[in-house]
Amino acid sequence: MKMRIMRYEGKKTDFIDLLLLADESRDMIDRYIGRGEMYILEDEGIVKGECLVTDDGDGILEIKNIAMLPQYSRMGYGRAMIDYLSSAYRGSFCILQAGTGDSPLTIPFYEKCGFKRSHIIKNFFTDNYDHPIFECGIQLVDMIIMRKGIS
Fold first, then answer.
1. pLDDT of amino acid 117
2. Are 144 and 117 in contact (CB under 8 A)?
């Protein structure tokens, strides 16, 4: 069976374990899950990842959550998801955007996918989470907004 990415029409919380890999706050997920479109990536009959995007207005499609199961990370699935979204929404949106922490794990991933740093939301993680968020041993404080043209 070939890899396929498809819009998920069921209950998005069916994939809460995957969603929590990318955003460890259920409260934060609850803020955007209802207004987003969810896509799942399946390969060899196994769901290996998900992505939830929202229409943020002004031609911006925002990746609110993208996660692959840990055993399938660094296998090209995340990039495949971004390529799929870029193609699927071309003509409907001008910009694909993602907000992330300033981490050596996520920033290089987005840059390899063609994103560039746009701006910073100061203190996003410290203001919006009830506990410190760490990635690669680094406390996340500011959110880095990454953007890629898709028109």
1. 97
2. yes
